[in-house]
Design brief:
Blueprint: E1 37-42, E2 48-49, E3 64-68, H1 75-79, E4 111-113, H2 115-121, E5 126-130, H3 140-153, E6 158-162, H4 166-178, E7 181-187, H5 192-199, E8 205-208, H6 212-225, E9 229-231, H7 237-242, H8 245-254, E10 262-266, H9 271-285, E11 295-301, H10 306-313, H11 338-348, E12 352-355, H12 357-371, H13 377-391, E13 401-405, H14 414-417, H15 430-435
Parallel strand pairs: 5-13, 6-7, 6-9, 7-8, 10-11, 10-13, 11-12
Antiparallel strand pairs: 1-2, 1-3, 4-5
Bound molecules: pyridoxal-5'-phosphate and zinc ion.
Length: 438
């Protein structure tokens, strides 16, 4: 049996030399290609392999994760960095000269105190981490920037992904800017704006008749067959996933270098949630924030809630589902990191909750009308779940809470198009206006 690998130009050099990034296929990684990252380690059995385009353990098929040997990092050094994710480059698997390569420079998005929404929900202190302002309007620009760096270092010829929409937008744009060919795969029933938001950047958008899990399976097959294709969330997934840590770093820095008491995060594959937790743990270990308890909460839409179902049933196994929800960006029926989401939420004393599509729409309007932020269905899910967690007493309404808005409402206009609109359509006269009663 051999573990899934890809035909990029660097091969596994084995567990004996975890820090020696050399190739037996003719390509040698340049020194410092992955910054302070030292090796990949299996999340399940701890087996270590050298840094390379690998994503599954050769011993047990468990997922591989980037390990580091961090130097001392100070708040001042970070603050002196650029206003994007590269201010944290010492904590990411990227080279020191990452800012020189053409990339989207995502991150350092605003953390807004949400006083109106807090009052509406009966909460004391609430912030919205608004990632809708990233270059392609979702948090995916963060992960893609890290994946692009890895793909470039591995000498990939094609930059690709299976996607529920936002990832395809981010990959297509980042590839255009970097001058690398992109091919992005999406379910064919995806919202039109998300399709257009990819197709403007790439001539190789592939719509697949199937759901995300079908698209993902196809991508794995292509990755195994085609040489030089870097699928950001398949064969360079360990590097890609690290990008989500920057959400955690930024939240801590923007709170004045401290951790919130509670954080609510949407869950599709579950990668983002586990990486925000990893970021908090790293900041504690590096002495950049005080060690204190925090609770992590996951948000799903009921029409695709395999992780929430497992959480509520108190079991570890996640039973895959066929998604049926308007929250298409979260519609992953077989989430790769679902079991680790369960671990994080249980370990920290958080929870995972799910809400109906009507509550998702309500969540979108709640954020828009109270804070002037137009989120997509993923954010509607997260805000709606926040509301439910407060109402059910699972979340402490007096504790400091951050909710992450991961995407932009203009990409899922149809979700609320029938719920809002002109209050009145009138002739251009003062009398007509008065007659509206506004
Ligand atoms: C807007 C948005 N939020 C959240 C997620 C969930 O991310 P993850 O797969 O890391 O759980 C996605 C995934 O596609 C997304 O597009
Ligand atoms: Zn293993």
């Amino acid at each position: 049996m051999s573990a899934p690998s890809i035909e990029l130009s660097v091969d596994n050099v084995g567990a004996e030399q975890p820090t020696a990034p050399v190739s037996d296929q003719g390509r040698t990684l340049r020194p410092g290609a992955f910054g302070n990252a030292t090796n990949l380690a299996c999340r399940e059995c701890g087996y270590q392999v050298a840094l390379g385009p690998h994503y599954a353990c050769s011993e047990c098929f468990g997922p591989l994760e980037v390990s580091y040997d961090f130097p001392a990092v100070t708040r001042e050094e970070i603050a002196a960095g650029p206003p994007n994710i590269w201010r944290y480059k010492a904590l990411l698997p990227v080279p020191d000269d990452i800012e020189q390569s053409p990339n989207m420079e995502p991150g350092f998005t605003r953390l807004l105190e949400a006083r109106n929404l807090a009052a509406e929900l009966g909460m004391t202190k609430l912030w919205v981490k608004d990632d809708s302002t990233n270059p392609t309007n979702s948090f995916k620009d963060r992960v893609v920037a890290c994946a692009l760096s890895a793909a470039t270092e591995f000498g990939a010829k094609v930059f690709a992904c299976p996607s529920t929409g936002n990832l395809a937008n981010a990959v297509a744009a980042a590839g255009a800017r970097a001058g690398i060919k992109t091919v992005v795969f999406i379910p064919s029933n995806l919202e039109k704006p998300k399709q257009v938001n990819s197709a403007v950047y790439t001539d190789s958008l592939v719509a697949v008749n199937g759901n995300y899990d079908d698209v993902n399976k196809l991508a794995s097959e292509i990755a195994g067959e085609q040489e030089g294709w870097a699928f950001v969330n398949v064969n360079v997934r360990p590097f890609y996933a690290e990008g989500s840590k920057t959400l955690g770093y930024e939240i801590a820095e923007q709170l004045g270098w401290r951790l919130p008491d509670q954080i609510v995060i949407p869950v599709a594959s579950g990668s983002q949630l586990t990486k925000v937790d990893k970021a908090f743990q790293e900041l504690i270990a590096l002495g950049l924030v005080e060690d204190k308890p925090y609770k992590v909460f996951g948000a799903q839409a009921t029409g695709c809630s395999p992780v929430s179902v497992a959480y509520k049933a108190g079991v570890d196994a996640i039973r895959p589902v066929k998604p049926d929800t308007i929250a298409k960006s979260l519609a992953i029926g077989n989430p790769a990191d679902g079991i680790y989401v369960l671990d994080v939420c249980r370990r920290t004393g958080g929870a995972i909750e799910d809400i109906s599509d009507d509550e998702v729409r309500e969540g979108i309007l709640l954020l828009a009308r109270n804070e002037g932020i137009f989120t997509e269905t993923a954010g509607g899910t997260t805000v709606g779940v926040l509301k439910k967690l407060v109402e059910t007493g699972q979340l402490d309404r007096t504790a400091e809470t951050v909710v992450i808005n991961t995407g932009m409402g203009l990409k899922t206009l149809d979700a609320v198009a029938d719920s809002v609109g002109a209050r009145a359509t009138i002739e251009p006269s003062y009398d007509a206006f008065v007659a509206t009663g506004i």
